[in-house]
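Dear colleagues,

As part of the handover before I leave the project, I'm documenting each prediction I ran so the next person doesn't have to rerun anything. This entry is a single chain, and its sequence is reproduced below.
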Amino acid sequence: MRNEFKVSGKIQEQPGEPTGEPSSRPGWDGYFMNIANVVATRSTCLRRQVGSIVVKDKRILCSGYNGAPAGLKHCFETGCLRDEQGIPSGQRHELCRGLHAEQNAIIQAAMHGTAIRGAICYVTHQPCSLCAKMLINAGIKKVIFQGEYPDPLALALFAEAGVELVHYRP
């Protein structure tokens, strides 16, 4: 049985912004999205490399990438249970040994006593519904994402919570 979620909000489409500066200098959103993409290079997930940074007042507060919890074997060492069982992307998150990039960013902020309420989350892919709920409860006011992810419930949750969602296109 397939669930359908009605999204009452709207996703803004945002192309890379002109800055009035030399063309090699990115605007703030491009700058922060570039950093999120670099953070994603630390990912140990076999399926998708995701990076996330949380920014407030043009200052980076924390970052995270997807992978196994600290001190545990990485997925490239153990294999991917979801791949082995043929589980499609966006389903059965509980069978994954890894944490998502947004979850790791929130955890890093908490571990270091950094308040993120009212901040913006830049993430390389649209957050899933689990991360959407965490970002909402953490007080994130805006999410700027680059790649798509098949989770309409996440979109509905962000809309209901009034979190601004922006699809960044370089």
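The chain has a mean pLDDT of 90. Helices lie at 28-40, 75-78, 81-84, 101-111, 129-137, 152-161.

All the best with the project,
I.
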